Amino acid sequence: MQGSIADLPLHGKKLFFASDFHLGAPSFEASKIREQRIIQWLDYIAEEAAAIFLVGDIFDFWFEYREVVPKGYLSFLSKLSQLRNRGIPILFFTGNHDLWMKEYFTQELGIPVYHSPLEILIEGKKILVGHGDGLGPGDKTYKLLKKVFTNSLAKWLFHWIHPDLGIGLAKAWSKNSRINHSTKDEQRFLGADEWLWSYCKSLEESAPHDYYIFGHRHLPLQLPVGKQGTYYNLGEWVNQNTYLEFDGKEARLLEFTNTPFPAGKDYSSSSQGK
Ligand SMILES: [Mn+2]
Predict the structure, then answer these.
(1) How many angstroms does the Cα of residue 22 sit away from the middle of ligand 1?
(2) In angstroms, what is the span from residue 225 Cα to ligand 1's centroid?
(3) pLDDT tens-digit readout, 106-150
(4) Which of 67, 93, 95 is nearest to 179 (CA)?
(5) Interval between CA 9 and ligand 1 midpoint (Å)
C-alpha cells in the first residue's frame, strides 16, 4: 500500500471511480470516439464530484521521457485540466499498461499519481482503491514481467530508444493485450477463482474494509467480502462504460449511457453472481 488519506470532504457530493479506458487502443479512430465518450462522462459527473479516481490502464501505453511525453489524448488532458481548475481533486492510479507514469501529471495538472493501492477513510467508510494488477494468487507470468517493467535498469535502457521506435514497439506489443482480444473466459464470472476477490477476502481477515475498489479485471462485479465488506470491479470502457459512485453512504456501480438523464443505468444487480 502506498499510503492513506482521510481528508477528502464530500460536502454532499460524491466520489467517482473508473478504470481501464485503454486510450490509444485498438486504433486511433476507435480511441478518439471513446475519448469523446469519456469527456461527456466527465462533464456529466463534474457538478456532483467531490473527487474523481482514475484507477489504472487509462492509457493503453504511456512512457515519459525527460523532455517528451506520448502524443495524443489532448482533448482528454484538457478536460482533466479544466476540472482541476474548477478545484475538483483527481487521483490517478497506474495500471499494468501505464505503469511508467512519472511526474508529468503531477507537474502539469496537479494530479497525484499512485503506483499501488491507497486506503481512504471517507465519512466513516474504509475504502481500498487501486488497479489490482499483481494482487492475489496466480498470474505468475505477469508478476515476473512487472519485475522487469519496473526494473530501473530496464526503464533506463528503454528510455534511450528513440520514442518513435520505443513507443511504436510498445504499441505493437500492446495490441496483443486482453482488452483487444477479450476472451469469453474473461467476460465470465469465475466464482471462487476470481483472484482479486480472493485477495480481498484474505486481506479482510487481517485488515477489514468496507469497500475494495479495483479495475484490471474488465468485468463489472459487486461481490460480498466477509461480513460487511464489498469488492467492486470497475469494468472497462472499451465495451461497457462502467463506473462507481459513492455518496458517503452507499456505493453504486453504474453504466454511462451517453444520455444526460437519467443517470447511467444501475449495473450492480445484473453483475452479481453472473
Ligand atoms: Mn486493463
Answers:
(1) 7
(2) 23
(3) 999 999 999 999 999 999 999 999 999 999 887 788 888 888 888
(4) 95
(5) 29
The whole-number pLDDT of residue 185 equals 56
Q: How far apart are CA 31 and CA 53, in angstroms?
A: 20
Domain count for the chain, please give it: 1
Q: What is the CATH number of the domain that holds 139?
A: 3.60.21.10
pLDDT value, residue 269: 54
Q: How far is the CA of 174 from the centre of ligand 1 (A)?
A: 11
CB neighbour class for 172 (10 Å; exposed up to 12, middle 13-18, buried from 19): exposed
Which domain covers residue 87, as residue numbers?
A: 3-271
CA of 60 to the centre of ligand 1 (A): 8
> Position of cell 480511441?
31
CA 147–ligand 1 middle distance (angstroms): 18
Better-predicted residue by pLDDT, 44 or 274: 44
Confidence of residue 219 (pLDDT cuts 50, 70, 90): very high
- CA–centroid distance, 156 to ligand 1, in Å, is 24
For residues 81 and 109, the answer to whether their CB atoms sit within 8 Å is yes
End-to-end, the C-alpha distance of the chain in Å comes to: 30
pLDDT range class, residue 174, cuts 50, 70, 90:
confident
Q: How many Å lie between the centroid of ligand 1 and the Cα of residue 24?
A: 12
Tell me the CA–centroid distance for residue 196 and ligand 1, in Å.
14
